[in-house]
Fold this sequence. Notes:
- There is one protein chain.
- The protein is an alpha+beta fold.
- It folds into 2 domains: 13-162, Glutaredoxin, CATH 3.40.30; 163-210, no CATH class.
- It contains 6 helices and 9 strands.
- A 7-stranded mixed β-sheet has the order 2-1-5-4-3-8-9.
- The mean pLDDT is 94.
- InterPro entries: AhpC/TSA, Peroxiredoxin, Peroxiredoxin_AhpC-typ, Peroxiredoxin_C, Thioredoxin-like_sf, Thioredoxin_domain.
- Residues 2-176 form the Thioredoxin domain.
- One of its GO terms (molecular function) is thioredoxin peroxidase activity.
- Belongs to the peroxiredoxin family. AhpC/Prx1 subfamily.
Amino acid sequence: MSLVGKKAPIFKAIAAVEGYTLDENFSLEKYIGKNEVLLFFYPKDFTFVCPTELIAFQNKMEEFEKRGVVVVGCSTDTEQTHLAWLRTPRKQGGIQGVNYPIIADTDKTIANNFGVLGGSYQMAENGQLEFVGEPVAFRGTFLIDKEGIVRHEVVNYFPIGRSVDEELRTIDAWQFSQKYGEVCPANWQSGDDTLKESHESVSEYLSANA
Length: 210
């Protein structure tokens, strides 16, 4: 079920931070009242699509910071694997230079609570628990506001890399709507016309863009 409009699940976990050290009690609660958070899940360290995404987020970090948005990554790998990947040069498949927090969700509870775990435990006919599906996270992305409410989510299957530019566009639309009380139509980009929530405003917009 979608988390949009609901409180983001609360958690504490170990996270690799600043590219080289560990925070033993990392929590999104530290940002409540201060920053919006873009929390994204990815399947595994040392893979193929994943480093392209993590580096793409890092390459746009200045854009997120200008918008007051904190970027946080999460996978079910261990904190030691995160640190090893962060210390590995990019030419060798690593993500050296990434400095935003990366959570180690080793017990898979965070991914499960956000609804992005690629499978679940089920009881087999022999009475044994078995995991059906993939025991890693889908490519889930969540925009969480300053009150801890999820305002946007999108989930991609494993082979489909996400668009960082689309996440920035979504953040712009959310922040514009909150600031000016207007709504953003399809394919809206920062600087485009917006709508007031009225039939007259919609009719005018549709006529102008026919």
